[in-house]
Amino acid sequence: ERGLDGMYISSFDPFISEYVPLQDNHRFYLSNFTGSMAEVLVPLKGRVRLYVDGRYHEQADLEVDDTDVEVMKIGADGSTTEELVKDVRKLGIKRLGYESDRTTLTYLKRLSAAASEAVPVAVGELAALIEFEALPALKEVQLIAREFRGRDTLEKTRSIFSNEKQALFLTALDSIAWITNCRGYHLPFLSSFYAKALVTKEKVYVYVTPETPISAKAKKEYGLEFISIPFNEVATHLEQLQNTLHFNDVMFDPGMINSADFGMLMKVFGMEMLVEKHGGLYDYQSIKEPVELKP
To answer: How many Å apart are CA 129 and CA 206, to the nearest integer?
Structure first.
């Protein structure tokens, strides 16, 4: 129906998480592979291609049905990204589909260079073809006591931003957990919680879905504002903030933002206001607080 020659499927969720619940891992539904990282290319003809590095060669062989899925085993001197992009060219894929809410902006640039046209598949469009399982109910987001994590949110933001006309849009869940000092345990092996955020010098605006429970202490924490709205309404709130606060620069990490969210930022702020900040907050959150270094 879309005239596609192939489809790219990542291992990510909309927050570009590495450890994604299988219910929300679209790659799993197409390959039956349960490892944390792999890439999938679905050509118009032939088997689904699953690209895995050396950590997962044996696991992939054990889990996939090789009548439907071909395991592309990448050696130590290569990368799954490089090999998939090469195959897009080799297979002559001209119109390549991709999930805009699960493909990073950086990866999309690579795909766009390999195919004649990268065609975004709308959020939820794949769900019309595949019956995905529902995620379990979300745990309450709680504020971590100061004695266990060090500085408050505003102490962190005031050390990062030089003025109130700067902002940083975040979807990296570990960074949101760090800047808010909150935890929710919403993903496997991680203490973070599902959210998006706009970080400024004097406040962090935290967007969570209406189904996300927030503790009373977290709601009262100075410097945090939790906004419970569907994620497709975040753009409207960002427009309201821009009309009030008049930001000059809005930063984002191209490697940790999905292409749909980047498109939203362009519509709200305009390309001239957006600033790439590779790594986001990782340079800051990698510095341990004194309380974190205590034995």
So the answer is: 32
**CA-to-CA distance for 222 and 98, rounded, in angstroms?**
40
Q: 278 φ, ψ to 5°?
A: -65, 130
267: helix, strand or coil = helix
Q: Which ranges of 130-276 would DSSP assign to H, the alpha helix?
A: 146-149, 153-160, 173-180, 216-220, 234-245, 259-269
User: What's the CA gap between 99 and 26, in Å, rounded?
Assistant: 10
CA dist., res. 126 & res. 257, Å (int): 20
Exposed e or buried b for every residue in 9-47, given b needs 16+ CB within 10 A? bbbbbbbbbeebeeebbbbbbbbebebebbbbbbbeeee
What is the per-residue pLDDT for 146?
A: 93
State the number of CA atoms in the 13 A half-sphere of 139 facing the CB. Answer: 13
Q: Which two tokens stand for residue 195?
A: 């959210």
Q: What would the pLDDT profile of 63-121 be if each residue is shown by its tens digit?
A: 999 999 999 999 988 899 999 999 999 999 999 999 999 999 999 999 999 999 999 99
Query: From the CB of residue 246, how many other CB atoms can be counted at a distance below 10 Å?
Result: 9
In the DSSP assignment, the letter for residue 270 is: -
Per-residue pLDDT tens for 168-205?
A: 999 999 999 999 999 999 998 999 999 999 999 999 99
SS3 38: coil
Q: Which two tokens stand for residue 147?
A: 């004695």
- The alpha carbon of 240 is separated from its chain's Cα centroid by a whole number of angstroms, namely 24
Which letter, b or e, does each residue of 98-109 get, where b requires 16 or more Cβ atoms within 10 Å of its Cβ? Answer: bbbbbbbbbbbe
